[in-house]
Every structure is written in structure tokens, then in C-alpha cells.
Amino acid sequence: MAQDSTIEWTDATWNPVTGCTKISPGCKNCYAHRMARRLHAMGQARYRNNFAVTLHPDLLEQPRRWSQPRKIFVNSMSDLFHSDVPLEFIRAVFEVMGKADWHTFQILTKRSERLVELAGQLPWHDNIWMGVSVENADYTYRIEHLRKVPAAIRFLSVEPLLGPIPRLPLQGIHWVIVGGESGPGARVMAPQWVRKIRDRCIAQGVPFFFKQWGGTRKKLTGRELDGRTWDEMPEIDSKNSERNLA
After folding, report:
1. What would the pLDDT profile of 13-55 be if each residue is shown by its tens digit?
2. Residue 167 in this model has a pLDDT that exceeds 50
3. Is residue 77 classed exposed, middle or buried when 0-12, 13-18 and 19+ CB atoms within 10 A define those classes?
4. pLDDT value at residue 3
5. Domain ranges of the chain
6. Does position 2 have pLDDT exceeding 70, yes or no?
7. Which of 28, 125, 181, 238 has its CB 3.0 to 4.6 Å from that of 186, i.e. a possible disulfide?
8. Residue 105, SS3?
9. What stretches of the chain adopt beta strand conformation (E)?
């Protein structure tokens, strides 16, 4: 059975790697770090190393046992392009994704430098969506790296949005997710920051997904922006990859 997810933009999670290290402001209140500590304290074997990067080779074939097609978030509890994950293991993950072609796989990284360094050594099957996290204007360089990756769908997770990004670069990008931080110590997201990105997406024809306002009690703040929810997703067709980035 798939590991069903409550994350609004995916259906399930798959964690052949767990654990990570914090590298930028968006990591400060990392939900995965909090969850890993809790699972470690509960004696969960997968988290025996707490939040240290840990490979789980026995989980590599897991998606192939899930017969129902779904969107699968890869490594919700880690970063596949962390320096402690060997290239050979990353290749193994990509090979499984290619074989399980009835699923759509969504990968997110903050380590865009390593992503672009390794991209040419990986098989980019059409069911693999690749994204980078961009929490404020200081990290838009990750988008430049992402543009060089020959993924069928390239997307941005602008979450937690920690500051204004007046001119979010969208050339070669197929989807944008925006969300506020949630949980203990959540930092405030200004509505005008969200609207600026939404309006830019509309103007450039990029699907926009608003995940949440966040806060310490995110269910109370909800997901509506200007009276509606925004659940746009990229269209999947033979022309979507646009690999020449023209």
C-alpha cells in the first residue's frame, strides 16, 4: 500500500533516503527534522540515526508494488541531491522511477548545484518532475540551475515564502507552488508577496498552486487566496518538456 500523503499537491510519499542537513533560511523550522526526532524517540527503525542521512535500499522497489497510478513525492524526509547520497544510489532511484512509468514522480531539492552537476548522468524519464525550493529572492539562482535540467516538468516550491520575490524567473518553468510556513515558530508570509507571484504566473501562463497560509494552526488560516483556492497543475503532453528551453 502507498504511503498516502496529506501534502496538497501530491498523493503519496516515497523515502528511499531519510535525513538531511540545514543549508538555507527555509530549513530553519524543517518539518521533516521535527518528525524525524519524534520517530527516533519512538524507536522507529528507519530513524535509528535520527536526522542523519540514511539510505534505505530495501525501499527502492516500493513504487513498483503500488499498482494504482499516483503522484509520488520522492524523499519528503530528505533531499535526494544531498552530498551524502552517492551518485550510484541516485541512479538507482531514477531507474526505479523509469520502470514504474504509471506513476508521476515529484522531486524537490535545495541543492541545485549538485542537481545540475549530476543531471547529465541521470535518465530523465518523462514521468519525472524536478523542482527546486526558493524561499526568498536570494535563492532564485536555484532556478537558473533547474532550467539546465532536461526534466519533462520543471517546478518551483516557493515555500516557506519568507520575503518578496518581485520578479520570480519563470522562463522554462512549468509549475509554481507557493505556501507559508506552518508549525512551531512559523514565520509570517505577507499576502502581497503571494499575489505578486500569482499575478506573474497568470501573466506568463504558468500553473499556480497555493498550498497554505500556514502559521502555528494552519487549518484555521486555510488555503483560500482572494476568495478561491488555486490548485492548478501542469498539463502533461508530448510537447510539455520543451527541452530546448527556447
Report:
1. 999 999 999 999 999 999 999 999 999 999 999 999 999 999 9
2. yes
3. buried
4. 76
5. 8-14+62-221
6. no
7. 181
8. strand
9. 3-4, 12-14, 17-18, 54-55, 71-74, 104-109, 128-133, 153-158, 175-179, 208-212
Q: How far apart are the first and last CA of the chain?
A: 41
Query: Is beta strand 104-109 parallel, antiparallel or unpaired with respect to 128-133?
Result: parallel
Would you give the distance in Å from CA 53 to the centre of its chain? 18
Q: Minimal CA–CA distance to 157: which of 172, 182, 175?
A: 175
Phi-psi region of 152 (alpha: psi -120 to 50; beta: other; left: phi over 0): alpha
Instruction: Give the tens place of pLDDT for each residue, 200-235.
Output: 999 999 999 999 999 988 989 999 999 999 999 998
DSSP 172: T
> Which position has the grid cell 507571484?
197
Whether the predicted model's global pTM rises above the 0.85 cut: yes
Backbone angles phi, psi at 54, to 5 degrees: -135, 130
Tell me the per-residue pLDDT of 96-153, one tens digit each, with 9 for 90 and over: 999 999 999 999 999 999 999 999 999 999 999 999 999 999 999 999 999 999 999 9
20 within 8 A of 33, measured Cβ to Cβ:
yes
> Could you give the CA distance from residue 119 to residue 79 in angstroms, rounded to a whole number?
15
